[in-house]
Amino acid sequence: MTGSVWWSIVSLVFILCTAPVWSVSVMSVDLGTEWMKVAIVSPGVPMEIALNKESKRKTPVAIAFRDGERTFGEDALTVGVRFPKLCYTHFLELLGKKIDHPLVQVFKKRFPYYDIVASPDRGTVVFQHDSETQFTPEELLAMLLQKAREFAQNSAIEKINDAVIIVPGYFNQAERRAVLQAAELSGLKVLQLMNDYTAVALNYGIFRRKDFNETAQYVMFYDMGASSTTATVVSFQLVKTKEKGVVESNPQLSVIGVGYDRTLGGLEKQMRLRDHLGKKFNEMKKTPNDVFQNPRAMAKLFKEAGRVKNVLSANVDHFAQIEGLLDDKDFKVQVTREEFEKMCEDLFERVKAPIDQALKTSGLSMDLISQVILVGAGTRVPKVQEKLTEKVAMELSKNLNTDEAAVMGAVYRAADLSNGFKVKKFLTKDAVLFPIQVLEVIFDREADGGVKQVKRMLFGQMNPYPQKKILTFNKYQTDFTFHVNYAELDYLNPSEIQSVGQLNLSQVDLSGVAEAHELHKGAANAESKGIKAHFTLDESGVLALSSVELVIEKTLSDEEAAGEESPFSKLGSTISPEDALKNNLDEKPVKEEPETGKAGESGEKKDQSEGEEVKQSSEEQQAKEKPTEEQKKNATGKDGEKKKPKVVTVKEAIKFSEKLIGINPLAEKEMQESLKKITSLDEHDARKRAREGAMNALESAVIDAKVKLEEDAYNQAATQQESEAILALCAKIFDWLDEEGYSAEAADFESRLAELKQLTAPVWRRVKEHEERPDALAGLESTLSHSNNFLATIKNMTANQTEADETPIFTAVEISLLQKTISDTQEWKSKMIEEQSKLKSSDNPKLTIASIVEKINNVEREVKYLVNKIKIWRPKKKESPKDTKNTTSSTDQKAKKDGSGKDKSKEEEKVIEPSEEVNEEEESPNAAESGQGTKTKAQQPEPEAQEPIAEAEVPEVAEPVVEPSKTESELRKDSESEPSIVASALIVFVIHVLFRLVT
């Protein structure tokens, strides 16, 4: 590689590494039932909460549609109080559920004013907004994610594409796919769907990483939110990991136990308090109408119940009051904490159940738990804390931000997963809540009905993920089908099993099995190892079947082994054992334990052939790909022994089709329709914002014009015709705003604003000229004064240098040019001031600010040119003829002879003319040893004066470094970027004083 190519590569790498990176910011979104929180990480800004337009740290999950306008958050809730049907809230629990789901029925009972219908294709929930418009929960969530992205981008001041989204840990496969599709509709790239309790645990761990060691520490997080309650047991410890050949210790959190109650939360308490307030109002008999039959009144009661519930967490009683609740009748009643606790007594008894479930799944006792940390707004209720203290028998920890812990942990994970940030490693291992199994239906004459079911566990309860697994099917010679289902959920109560929904996940049909076997049929040296299905449970907890293949092991004869070596085996010989082991760790064979699917068949013999799994460790597979030294030795043979046969693995891809059972994702056509609907709403909102901005700008300009014309300065600067035209146009615009402004587009407002600016611009410009002219003239006067002082200084310097028989710094032409520039500027100033004084305020000015600035620049340019010249100048004296005779240096005085022995020192002697510059900074080769530079011929001392010159006698400022000679154009170019004339004059004054001291 040549030097030029090498430096080109180095330069390119440097540019790429130092170039600014754009759009690297990431975000996280905590999707709660009632509130949404957004956090960001951007360059130069660590983890922080993105504020909404009201500068609040959390936003209500609410979207309202009214009169063609779409509003979010607090604005939407305001609409919802008057028009409850037009404001959609608490819709997160409807994702991935059919119309007959138990939780959908609960939602319809809580919010009866929504018109909920079933999707004709999927059977899922659809909100019937009006006769022509429908909204699915995925579409509403996509709009909400777009708003979250807007908050994040406003805080980061750049575009954001990547996000980590927090979901409840009990979300099943259909619900997780629904969230991913909603994110796709919003235009977000989901780095990961993160369980809420995992995000909380990560937030806890990243600030306490120094407290962890190799011994596991067990912490329980108790989270009570708006709709659900979760208890999670998490272990923290240091583990050793190997990356790029380096072993290092990193902290790791592992979820080992989870218990939850998806209907226990603040929302249920709020609903009960709302019903209590409604009964109290009906008992007052203020109106014959029933408050429960009025949706608007129920929406008001719901909002007030939420406020009272929060107040009762800190007070023993409080008054609930609503103006004009129903039929213009006000409502006010006192509610005590005791009454509130009594109406929610059964809910408080359910507080302990998630803890028992979490301990059971983790296999730990409460004695091993070091802390119980409260998370979620629901844990602020005193009764909840009382019940928890009774259960855990220890002091509850409140050292986490109950609202923001999850979203801050998730944004740390987002920064870790992104390519734009490097964070300290913190490993996370989540756990499977609902075990997943594979079900085979096998024809068997001995079984009842001729078939039997074989179940094999794929991902067991609390198995860590992300993870890959391989399932092997033996002795299938033709196409077959298997099912992927949730395993038995006996550890859950019956109501929760119903809430999980459809237990059947998918049906997989394999085709081409017989053809794949036919390719190797009859080969005596081929052995089938079964059909292997590769499953993946990714970081988002979504299950996928990645590939299916038939595996055949072939034993090659000596001739075949010697004659042909597969490219794969050649490549395998270059793979190190560490790399091969790393590649095989992620995919684990499933230990198969076939079970009978029907009751009463426990004693039936199991089909061992169907349940057989290829048991081969990663080390054994590695040994086949790269033989050890001993295997190599045996392969070559010794003492006439035969070589061991070579075994190769052949994989034939099997076609498969996977059909989801239960809730199907949105089809491509439905996705396009939803995207079109959302895009239309986005465009409408953009037009609305543009119209509002243009209208506000026009109104402000009209009011500003009328106010200014009432001031003396503007009134005098405008002619009578101009004032009348401006006022007439303002009145015309006001009339137009009142009559047609409500339906006008942004372009109409902008055209009228341009017309108004065209009339007012000359008047406003005159006023600006009159107001700023005195300051500009003062600046010109100051420039002229300093320039005159500078001119006098350089004239004295030039005269002194001429008397001292030295070469002057400045030529006569340069001095005269500066003097002429100053004189011409002074004359122009006097003339223009006189002409301007004769004009009226309403006339266009002749002495403009721009012309004054131009004159200032002209004078400063000439001065700066001379300042640049003096910076690179160094003093030198004219040489006398006597000095010229002794200009030969000590090194040049040595005899210089050619090949004939003739002395050529005289021939090479050089006489320096008086005008020639001498560089005194060049040193002889022995300068470092002698500490003295080589003397020039003009400065060579006489033989009797060999003492060096003291440093104090030659001030550094008198010997500036000589730069390469510059042309006049270059000096003038440098003068454009020099400091102001005041600073330049000060520099010249200092140089002049030092020069006088030297000479």
Largest sheet: 6 strands, mixed
End-to-end Cα distance, whole Å, is 57 Å
Total helical elements: 30
Q: Which runs of at least 5 residues are low in confidence (pLDDT < 50)? A: 1-22, 568-587, 591-628, 630-635, 887-967
Fraction in helix: 40-55%
The share of residues in extended strands comes to 15-25%
Specify the overall morphology.
extended
Determine the structural class based on helices, strands and strand pairing.
Answer: alpha+beta
Mean pLDDT: 80
* Count of beta strands: 31
- Provide the gyration radius in Å: 44 Å
Note down, in words, how this protein is organized.
This protein is an alpha+beta fold. It is built from 30 helices and 31 strands. The strands form seven sheets. Strands 1, 2, 3, 4, 11 and 12 form a six-stranded mixed beta sheet that branches. The chain has a six-stranded mixed beta sheet with strand order 18-13-14-15-19-22. Helix 25 packs antiparallel against helix 26 (849-871). Residues 1-22, 568-587, 591-628, 630-635 and 887-967 have low confidence and may be disordered.
Characteristic key phrases:
42% helix; 31 strands; 30 helices; 999 residues; alpha+beta; extended; six-stranded mixed beta sheet; disordered N terminus
Question: How would the blueprint of this fold be written?
Answer:
Blueprint: H1 3-18, E1 26-31, E2 35-42, E3 45-49, E4 59-60, E5 62-66, E6 69-72, H2 73-82, E7 87-89, H3 102-110, E8 116-118, E9 125-128, E10 134-135, H4 137-156, E11 162-167, H5 173-186, E12 189-195, H6 196-206, E13 217-224, E14 229-243, E15 246-261, H7 266-283, H8 295-312, E16 317-326, E17 329-336, H9 337-343, H10 345-349, H11 353-362, E18 369-375, H12 382-392, H13 405-417, E19 427-431, E20 436-443, E21 451-459, E22 464-465, E23 467-473, E24 481-486, H14 494-500, E25 504-511, H15 513-518, E26 526-537, E27 543-556, H16 558-563, H17 567-572, H18 577-585, E28 587-589, E29 595-596, H19 618-625, H20 629-636, E30 646-653, E31 655-660, H21 668-709, H22 712-717, H23 720-739, H24 746-803, H25 812-837, H26 849-871, H27 881-885, H28 927-930, H29 968-976, H30 981-998
Helix pairs in contact: 4-5, 6-13, 7-8, 21-23, 21-24, 23-24, 24-25, 24-26, 24-30, 25-26, 26-29, 26-30
